[in-house]
Known about the structure:
By secondary structure, this protein is α+β, with helices and mostly antiparallel strands. It has one domain (24-101). The chain is 15% helix and 36% strand. The protein is built from 1 helix and 9 strands. It has one helix at residues 2-16; strands spanning 30-32, 51-54, 57-61, 64-68, 71-74, 80-82, 85-89, 92-96, 99-101. A 3-stranded antiparallel β-sheet has the order 1-8-7, with no helix packed on it. It has a two-stranded antiparallel sheet with strand order 2-5.
Amino acid sequence: MFIRHKVLSLLLIAASTIIVPRPSPAAVDIDINVGPPALRVEAPPSPRRGFVWAPGYWRWAHGRHVWVAGRWLRERPGYHWVPETWVQVGPRWHFQRGHWEQ
C-alpha cells in the first residue's frame, strides 16, 4: 500500500511539471518553449465557389511540430478566415487557433 501511494505521489509530481494548457470554455490553449519551423510554401489551388482556402500551419503534437496541410473551408458570408498562427510571448510560443471574424 505504501509503495503504491508513493508511486502515485511521484506520478502526480511528474505530471505537474508538464506544460499544462490554460483552460478555455471552447478550446485548449497551447504554450511551448520551442518556436515553430518556417512555414512551408503552399501554392493555393484555384478558387472554388462557396469555399475559402485555409493555409497550412504547424501544430504541436507528441512533443514536436507537425505540419497540417491547407484545406478548403465552406464560406461563411460576412466573415473572413483568420488562419492558425504561432505568436511569441516572452520566451514562450502561443498557438492561436484559426477562426472566423466579421
